[in-house]
Structure formats: structure tokens, C-alpha cells
Amino acid sequence: NAEYGQVDEYAPGFSDSVVGYDALAPPDLERIFGLTGGNIYQGSMGLDQLFTQRPTYLTPAYTTPISGLYLCGASTHPGGGVLGAPGRNCSKVVLQNKHK
């Protein structure tokens, strides 16, 4: 596996520590996990899905039409990844609204 070899250059022994792996294509992700279109970011990162448009212009700033219900995660700004920014941003909005 070429990828493992590259990791081994920086972390010797990595390849030997791998017990198993599974490669899933987008159709597999949709079928197994229910991710629409197999998109792990819960929506494309196209121009219509950036900034306050995530997940839709109808739900800006992590709020919803239902009082006290907020959205965060990969479907909200700034999108998915392993950085936690959607949760942080949403919690700030929740705290701001709590003090109103």
C-alpha cells in the first residue's frame, strides 16, 4: 500500500500496526451511513453552500425557525473537518441568545 509507505517515512512501523482497513466509495457511504450522495460534509462546498448559506440561507447563524433549536456540525459554517469550529460558533450564538 503506497500510502502506508509514505506514512512509514514519518512514523516508522505504522504499516505493521495496521490491523485492517476498508475503502468506501461515495455510493457505499450513502448506502451504509445514509450520507446523501456519499458526502461526508453533509452538502457540497459549492458557492451556494458557503458561509451563511450552510446548510441553507433559511437557517442563518446556526438558528432554526424552532425557538431553542440550533444547528452545528459539518452541515453548518465553516463546514466539516476535524476542527470543531461549527460547534464553537454555534455555542457562541446560543450564549448570545441566552443573554437576550
Protein model, in words:
The structure is a single chain. The chain has 100 residues and is an all-alpha fold. The protein is 35% helix and 0% strand. It contains four helices and no strands. The protein is elongated, with a radius of gyration of 18 Å. The relative contact order is 0.10. The mean pLDDT is 85.
How much beta, percentage-wise?
Answer: under 5%
Counting DSSP E segments of at least 2 residues, the number of strands comes to 0
Average of the residue pLDDT scores: 85
Major sheet size, sense and barrel closure = none
The Rg value, from CA coordinates, equals 18 Å
Instruction: Tell the overall outline.
Output: elongated
Indicate the percent of residues in helices. 25-40%
Class from helix and strand fractions: mainly alpha
Tally of helical segments: 4
Q: Which stretches are poorly predicted, pLDDT < 50 over at least 5 residues?
A: none
Query: Could you give the order of the helices and strands?
Result: HHHH
Distance between the termini: 56 Å
Topology:
Layout lengths: L1 H9 L3 H4 L8 H8 L51 H14 L2
Summarize the structure.
Helix content is 35%, strand content 0%. By secondary structure, the chain is mostly helical.
Keywords:
100 residues, mainly alpha, 4 helices, 35% helix
